[in-house]
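Final report, Chapter 2: Outcomes

The project's central promise was a pipeline that accepts a single protein chain and returns its three-dimensional structure in a standardized token representation, suitable for archiving and comparison. That pipeline is now operational. To close this chapter, we reproduce one record exactly as it appears in the project archive, with the input sequence first and the structure output second.
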Amino acid sequence: MSKVNNAFFMMSLVVLCVVFYTGTSLGQNIEASIKVNVEKASISISGQYLGRGSRSLSFLKSGVGESDLMGRISNLGVTDETSRPIPYKQSNKGEFVAETDFVRWGYELMAAVSKNSRAAAHISWLSDENGILMLDDLLPQSSNRTDKISATVTIEVPAGWKVVSTEERTGLSTFHVADIEKAVFLIGTDLREMKSNNSAMNITASGQWLFTDAEFSKIADEIYKEYLQIFGSGPADKIQVAIMPFPQKDVPTGTWEAETRGRSVTIISADMPFKTQSPQRLHEQLRHEIFHLWLPNGVNLSGNYDWFYEGFALYQSLKTGVALNQIRFEDFLDTLSRAHNIDSTQQWRRSLIEASQNRWNGADTQVYARGMLTAFLSDLALIQNSKGKTSISDIFQKLYDSHKPPNPLSDANTAILKIMDSYPQLKPVADRYVRGSRTIDWRVQLDAAGIENEAGNSGTSLRVQAKLTGSQKVILDKLGYNNWRKLSRKP
């Protein structure tokens, strides 16, 4: 799953807001019709349950940046199989409860752009030129949130508008959706679909940017290829990577929001002020979000393990940036330094497992900073012990291979710690920082890697030692220290 830009780690360590869904059990099937009205910024929705009726109708109550999603709904009506209206009342829980079972339902949903720009990548919205339809906040919820709802959905948009999605198109405007929680539809007048070197990936852009569509496609391709080498296979037979401008006005330059939901990466961004910065920021965004197509979206794991799929993802994003020569090794060390400074100032120290459980109650910074540092220490331990033959990539690949579908649903923390404990050199890291709440102490590991830790008035500062041993050079090389030299030797 990640969130809004804040002062956290400045350039590379962006706190993204990502929501992930992993529904696994079979649930209801529905048919639904979605009609977009641009002038009113509203969506007319009607549908019916297939196979069995219901006494209650419930909707997603809140999302990132919006606390009252149900307030968008009006003119609700429910009927039986003969189209006879059935009276209903709204319960204290926000559900609508009918006097008898109903089969069909209909309502209006106001989809005007939220005043909070954070919501742009996470809930449905509609502007004069484009929009995003996320079925999870548009269609009724299952009474049991672990149940999966499949749907046949017809989407009607104004003339000149396109609909882009990874969902299976079964007609001109009809789609089969296996799980509405994971379904994302981009709609608009300026949706530019471009070719990718990977047949599984569809790349879409809207709006004008300081990078070209060709640059966007190239960056997405090279990042996907890099992660494909780590995980060994693709996360799905069809994925969507898209970028759109904020629908809100006057969003500060450089601000961005992103979400990887199911097989869809959606980035909502305000461009950088200069051409040289724009592709760099895009690369940063995509390194993090494309990783999430594999972890956590490509595995059948449950529970709160944000420390891993966010903290370790941030670390891998940095390492990939170095590997692809998009950031310097000095930037890599600088970001780790700032993460250590942030973690060292935490008054209430928690284990990473506990911090993940309290992420939305003020522990998000600890999840990201401490998670990234734990990933770094894990990588150092693996590289040092194997003399460069093993790295954190082996952890990612083992976790993905063991828990990608059709493997059964498993508890994520148990699965990850089992893999970490299988490496003797990683068990102390897991015990101290994942299970435990010890202060990060990395002096021995840094020295083994040929990295100096200078403590000044502004906190920790990392740099490579002037004189290196052979074993230190091996570790630094595996971290990417010599990537720029390798690049300079290419013709």
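Archive annotation: The chain has 13 helices and 23 strands.
This record, like all others produced under the grant, will remain available to the consortium after the project formally closes.
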